[in-house]
Amino acid sequence: MLEAKIEQAVVFKRVLDAIKDLVEHANFDCNEEGLHLQAMDSSHVALSAVQLRSEGFEEYRCDRPMSIGVAITSLTKVMRSAQNNDILNMRKGDNADSLHLVFEGTSSDRIGEFDLKLMDIDTEHLGIPDTEYDAVVKLSSSEFARICRDLANVGESVKITITKEGVTFSTEGEIGDARMTLKQGSGSAARLDDEDDGGLDDDDADKPSKKRRTDAGSSSAAGGVVPVEIQLEKAVALTFSVQYLVNFTKAAPLSSAVTLHMADKVPLLVEFAFENGHVRYYLAPKLAEVRYEASDTDR
């Protein structure tokens, strides 16, 4: 039996928004530690990994490990029925073939109930080897989202160069070229613009959601400034598909900061970490044949 309660449905909505353009269907693996999801995109270029620790739930119970196979698009459609500040309850019996979701309004007696049909998804956990990265840079997630969107208007690929002085994002396209540099120690506002907040529906636009606390994403939309922090073993420069990077920025509403981990000839790790979980993306560099091999032990 799985029973999980999230104080604000917006947290789970934002998690789904972060992966829905990359993952068609996947298993939520549940155990006493929380919910975990790992899935490749259809091209086997990007890997998405989600963790929601049990501490981030208002209530959490998982009697035994189980996998809940869902169509991400279908689950996203169901979650659109929830207001951002609704209380979300999820329940699945040991032998149930559906996931029971209940949305409880906090300002009214409204209760919505849905039973989502589950899928039998036969997938192996993908091996993610331990990697020592040459360069790690932490920056504002909203600034990262803005840079990726702006460069996507110019070219199809983005070269990320990290040195001790800063991080540079550059691209070339038919209309010209563009380059944006963030210097070590410089800061950007952590607040997300409305257009960055992928977890909000149109009918929630009048709600002060950015000022509300979110359990799993408590650092989301926080005020203040996020300074650029660089840890460098050696300078590194790699090129990636800008469209994938734009898709990754859908996780920006979950965290005020994003961390990029880079090393030669290995996938880029883009991490949005929050108090009780994370969303991670692994992206193969362009012009490199980097694929993940299945493993029975790795998650």
UniProtKB/TrEMBL annotation:
Similarity remark: Belongs to the PCNA family.
List localization entries.
Answer: Nucleus
A Pfam entry, by short name:
PCNA_C
Establish whether keyword Thylakoid is in the entry.
no
Descriptive protein name? DNA sliding clamp PCNA
Q: Which PROSITE patterns match?
A: PCNA_2 (PS00293)
Q: What does this protein do?
A: This protein is an auxiliary protein of DNA polymerase delta and is involved in the control of eukaryotic DNA replication by increasing the polymerase's processivity during elongation of the leading strand.
Question: Which stretches make up the Proliferating cell nuclear antigen PCNA C-terminal domain?
Answer: 127-186, 228-286
List this protein's GO terms for biological process.
Answer: leading strand elongation; mismatch repair; regulation of DNA replication; translesion synthesis
Principal cellular location given in the protein's record: nucleus
The GO terms this record gives for MF are: DNA binding; DNA polymerase processivity factor activity
- Which residue stretches belong to region Disordered? 182-221
Give the source lineage, highest ranks first: Eukaryota, Fungi, Dikarya, Basidiomycota, Ustilaginomycotina
Q: Where is the composition biased (Acidic residues)?
A: 193-205
Write down the InterPro entries for this protein, in alphabetical order. DNA_clamp_sf (IPR046938), Pr_cel_nuc_antig (IPR000730), Pr_cel_nuc_antig_C (IPR022649), Pr_cel_nuc_antig_CS (IPR022659), Pr_cel_nuc_antig_N (IPR022648)
One cellular-component annotation, GO: PCNA complex
Domain Proliferating cell nuclear antigen PCNA N-terminal span(s) in chain numbering? 1-123
The alphabetized UniProt keywords are: DNA replication, DNA-binding, Nucleus
